[in-house]
């Protein structure tokens, strides 16, 4: 439920965004959304992903052109279920959503200050919606007694010279502070939920919190607090715990859980600050590198698959098997890691275990080497190989 | 992951084939295992879609939910599953043996002889992967608290009678599957991972077909290419030639094949409802036929998507049967039989279903049991399998070598001298052998303890003083000591697992752990032990 679009930054003359646009070619810019921003945090060392995401290249299309399409997709059943759950929550003036929110935020029971749900102009364009959200947020934060629910607000966040628009499911404002509400359709079963899914939701929500922090700081005319773990208490600042609203057990009834996202927030901030240093990564690219996926007038591709592969190769990747489930280029990078005989194909842990040994051939050579090597990892490998050979030989006998 | 496993993986990368990680089979395999391949409907936790199951590889049985969102149809499915699975689970409860034991009278302390029943064999369920185990746990959780028509207050949505019973069995089996070394419910990917290494990561090994591609690469392909084919080759409709082992289905299958088939079923049932309402008999007959055809079509597409995994699980079983059983399998399987018998007895005694959350004492007991079983498993696997022992030798917790010298020596501090001979062996191993540390002899005639008295790493020699296992006389019993030239192995860890300190009865739970259950003023469990469903 993260629809967001990207538009060129208001500062047009920035050379960085121009260079990124040149890399992308005439193809439409792929939007950065909370999910893709959060995914960056999963593999911070990957320059390839950082450059392609910053340039807004459609990685999915790129992967197909490279011959190893991304295996991702979402089942229509899962999408339908998510939509049904969210619409149930919002039916009858948000009755079902308010029940768990009341308990967590101390919302007044009926009769207290009424809940205000401003119209956020959801049918308008992104820029209009974002301006309207900023306006509504400022108004809601100015009145500490009011309870305001912003339904699908649109937040701005500047990332590497372009503006990303982010759309949280809801934001609740009271007492001059706001809280991000994220609606997910995985269940909380007997008080606990799938940690992997909660983690992904927290990383995503952290991006929204960051956008709200920037907005609050800009309104107050102050800089963002340098330490991501301290809560900046400006008017309209977000709380550092977000509310996750999920189905309870096997029912369709909602339950809300507060999730502390300070750690995720720190990771995201570090990640995004590195993205602004993307100029250095671009400087390292050979001239003429480009990821133009467009088709020219006579139907032929602007760049051949080989040219694209060379361009991708020019940006170093940090492949690990986790990439297969998080990045569209995962299969391509795996094939490259295998071609290059690199030990990363077996997992991050293996690479750590083998120390300075980087290829499978090197590792196996070390394992069969006799005589004393100077490298500790190589020596242990040889010892392990001897033990393995002995044990397997004993079994054959 | 240890360096030895990494080495095996590296070898597999080079050879393009799976490489052994064990020389014997470390898990019990039943003669008649029940293979269960479940599928779940996307988007809803624990919503079943279909299952292929059976004990005969040539005759799998399919059960399905034609519309996964319909709770009545889900109950019908669960009732079918219960009718299919429960006879197998209950079958083993009939044949018992009597095990003699003693029971201590809590007041007099007097011991009396008692006989307890132990089932002669137990059921074994095999699912494709650990996600399959999790799915069965979710079904168990969602069904064991259901009310049935036989309850006093059946509620508005009573479940078929045997469904909660199925939930309790599935809960027991999935709970037991958490115990290291247990074999009542096993995921095939886990079984294969214990015994063979592939040239890919653990993450990729979760894909059963990709894993098996390393064992049976087709057309002379290398394992990596064969695995990638299994993962990603699609037909002209965009469907995977080798569907994932589930329980989650491929989104493209949901979109292109399953979605339309379910829509067709929905259309047929609403046509049937309409013509029944209109009292249109011929229309109703036609609609009934359409419903039947829609279900047939669903059966067809689901069977097609399940069968490859079904055959994969059986191929995995074939592979495992090529390994000789490990020496301690029987002992661990007996533990599984006790677990099965215990659950059978609790059901017979009319005990309530397993609670949603364990109380403090039960949780501590389970944790202690799992830790104990893990320790026992590690020791037993090391004793049964030189490759497992090699792990300990690499870690410096064991050493093997050839005996070079045996020197008789005696402990003369007591009234009569006791044998304390010195055994020196030459080894290439580099154990953490501090002087005075206790060592234990592996595969000796009896359990034998020793103490390290001298270590010379440059020479590669270790001298041990043997402390026990030599009989009661002044001279060691013949054959109780290793001879020069003999290959011996010692471990620095004990070869029997100690019992942990006893835990209090639930009624004596200390206040630090919430006090006795029921006394706590915490949240009162909802009106009854039953779940509400909307």
Description:
The complex is a heterodimer of chains A (397) and B (534). With 397 residues, chain A is α+β, with helices and mostly antiparallel strands. Chain A contains 15 helices and nine strands. Among the domains of chain A are: 76-272, no CATH class; 348-396, no CATH class. The longest helix of chain A has 30 residues, at 76-105. Chain A is globular and about 80 Å long. Residues 1-13 of chain A have low confidence and may be disordered. With 534 residues, chain B is an alpha+beta fold. Chain B folds into three domains: 3-104 and 111-244 and 311-354, no CATH class; 251-310; 384-491, Elongation Factor Tu (Ef-tu), domain 3, CATH 2.40.30. Chain B contains 13 helices and 17 strands. A six-stranded antiparallel beta barrel of chain B has the order 10-13-16-15-14-17. Chain B has a five-stranded mixed sheet with strand order 4-3-2-7-8, with helices on both faces. Chains A and B meet through helix 5, helix 12, helix 13, helix 14 and helix 15 of A and helix 1, helix 3, helix 6, helix 8 and helix 9 of B.
Considering the chains and any ligands shown, give keywords for the structure.
heterodimer; A: 397 residues; alpha+beta; six-stranded mixed sheet; 15 helices; 48% helix; globular; B: 534 residues; Elongation Factor Tu (Ef-tu), domain 3; 3 domains; five-stranded mixed sheet; 13 helices; 17 strands; 17% strand; disordered C terminus
* SS summary, helix count of chain B: 13
Q: For the residues shown, what is the average pLDDT of chain B?
A: 87
| Count of DSSP strands of chain B | 17
In N-to-C order, the SSE pattern of chain B is HEEEEHEEEHHEHEHHHHHHHHEEEEEEEE
Structural class of chain A: alpha+beta
N/C terminus separation of chain B: 45 Å
Tally of separate domains of chain B:
3
Residues in helix, % of chain B: 25-40%
């Amino acid at each position: 439920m993260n629809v967001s679009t990207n538009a060129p930054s208001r500062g047009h003359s920035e050379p960085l965004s121009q260079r990124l646009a040149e890399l992308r070619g005439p193809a439409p810019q792929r939007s950065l959304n909370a999910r893709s921003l959060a995914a960056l945090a999963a593999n911070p060392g990957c320059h390839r992903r950082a450059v392609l995401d910053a340039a807004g290249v459609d990685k999915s299309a790129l992967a197909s052109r490279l011959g190893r399409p991304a295996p991702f997709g979402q089942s229509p059943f899962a999408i339908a279920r998510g939509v049904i759950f969210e619409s149930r929550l919002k039916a009858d003036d948000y009755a079902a959503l308010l029940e768990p929110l009341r308990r967590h935020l101390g919302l007044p029971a009926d009769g207290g200050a009424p809940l205000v749900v401003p119209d956020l102009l959801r049918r308008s364009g992104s820029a209009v919606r974002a301006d309207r959200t900023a306006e509504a947020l400022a108004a809601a934060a100015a009145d500490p007694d009011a309870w305001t629910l912003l339904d699908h607000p649109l937040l701005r966040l500047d990332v590497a010279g372009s503006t990303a628009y982010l759309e949280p499911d809801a934001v609740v404002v009271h007492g001059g502070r706001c809280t991000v509400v994220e609606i997910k359709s995985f269940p909380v079963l007997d008080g606990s939920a799938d940690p992997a899914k909660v983690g992904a939701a927290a990383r995503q929500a952290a991006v929204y919190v960051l956008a709200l922090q920037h907005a609050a700081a800009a309104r107050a005319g102050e800089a963002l607090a340098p330490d991501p773990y301290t809560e900046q208490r400006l008017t309209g600042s977000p709380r550092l715990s977000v509310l996750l609203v999920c189905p309870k057990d096997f029912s369709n009834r909602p339950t809300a859980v507060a999730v502390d996202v300070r750690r995720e927030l720190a990771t995201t901030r570090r990640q995004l600050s590195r993205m602004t240093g993307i100029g250095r990564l671009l400087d390292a690219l050979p001239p003429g590198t480009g990821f133009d996926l467009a088709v020219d007038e006579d139907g032929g591709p602007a760049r051949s698959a080989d040219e694209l592969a060379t361009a991708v190769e020019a940006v170093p990747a940090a492949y690990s098997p986790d990439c297969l489930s998080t990045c569209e280029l995962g299969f391509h990078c795996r094939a490259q890691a295998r071609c290059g005989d690199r030990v990363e194909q077996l997992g991050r842990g293996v690479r750590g275990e083998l120390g300075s040994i980087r290829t499978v051939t090197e590792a196996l050579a070390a394992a069969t080497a006799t005589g004393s090597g100077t490298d500790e990892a190589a020596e242990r490998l040889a010892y392990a190989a001897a033990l393995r050979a002995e044990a397997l030989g004993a079994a054959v006998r | 992951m240890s360096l030895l496993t990494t080495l095996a993986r590296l070898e597999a990368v080079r050879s393009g084939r799976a490489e052994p990680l064990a020389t014997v089979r470390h898990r019990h395999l039943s003669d008649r295992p029940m293979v269960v391949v479940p599928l779940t409907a996307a988007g809803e936790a624990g919503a079943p879609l279909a299952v292929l199951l059976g004990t005969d590889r040539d005759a799998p049985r399919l059960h399905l939910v034609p519309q996964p969102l319909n709770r009545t149809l889900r109950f019908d499915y669960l009732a079918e599953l219960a009718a299919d699975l429960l006879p197998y689970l209950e079958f083993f409860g009939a044949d018992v043996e009597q095990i003699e034991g003693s029971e201590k009278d809590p007041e007099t302390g007097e011991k009396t002889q008692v006989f307890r029943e132990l089932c002669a064999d137990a059921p074994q369920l095999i699912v494709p992967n650990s996600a399959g185990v999790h799915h069965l746990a979710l079904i168990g959780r969602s069904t064991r608290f259901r009310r049935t028509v036989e309850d006093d207050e059946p509620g508005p949505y009573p479940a078929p009678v045997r469904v909660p019973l199925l939930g309790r069995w599935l809960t027991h089996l999935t709970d037991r599957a958490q115990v290291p070394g247990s074999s009542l419910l096993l995921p095939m990917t886990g079984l294969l991972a214990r015994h063979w290494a592939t040239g890919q990561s653990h993450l990729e090994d979760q894909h059963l077909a990709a894993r098996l591609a390393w064992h049976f690469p087709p057309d002379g392909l290398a394992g990596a290419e064969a695995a990638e084919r299994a993962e990603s080759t699609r037909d002209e409709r965009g469907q995977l030639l080798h569907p994932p082992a589930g329980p989650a289905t491929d989104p493209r299958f949901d979109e292109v094949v399953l979605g339309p088939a379910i829509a067709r079923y929905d259309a047929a049932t609403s046509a049937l409802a309409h013509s029944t309402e209109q009292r249109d008999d011929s229309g109703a007959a036609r609609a009934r036929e359409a419903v039947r055809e829609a279900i047939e079509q669903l059966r067809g597409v689901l069977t097609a998507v399940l069968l490859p995994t079904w055959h994969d699980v059986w191929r995995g079983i074939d592979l495992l049967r090529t390994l000789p059983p490990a020496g301690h399998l029987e002992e661990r399987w007996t533990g599984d039989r006790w677990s099965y018998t215990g659950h059978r007895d609790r059901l017979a005694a009319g005990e309530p279903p397993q609670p949603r959350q364990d109380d403090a004492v039960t949780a501590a007991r389970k944790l202690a049991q799992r830790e104990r079983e893990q320790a026992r498993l590690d020791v037993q696997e090391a004793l049964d399998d030189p490759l497992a022992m090699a792990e300990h030798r690499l870690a410096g917790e064991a050493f093997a070598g050839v005996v070079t010298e045996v020197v008789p020596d005696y402990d003369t501090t007591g009234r009569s001298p006791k044998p304390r001979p010195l055994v020196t062996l030459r080894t290439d191993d580099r154990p953490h052998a501090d002087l005075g540390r206790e060592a234990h002899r592996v595969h000796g005639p009896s359990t034998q303890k020793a103490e390290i008295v001298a270590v010379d790493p440059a020479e590669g020699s270790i001298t041990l003083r043997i402390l026990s296992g030599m009989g009661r006389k002044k001279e060691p019993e013949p054959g109780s000591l290793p001879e020069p030239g003999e290959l011996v192995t010692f471990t620095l860890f004990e070869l029997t697992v100690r019992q942990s300190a006893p835990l209090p009865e639930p009624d004596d739970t200390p206040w630090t752990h919430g006090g006795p259950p029921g006394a706590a003023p915490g949240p009162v469990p909802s009106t009854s032990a039953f779940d509400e469903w909307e």
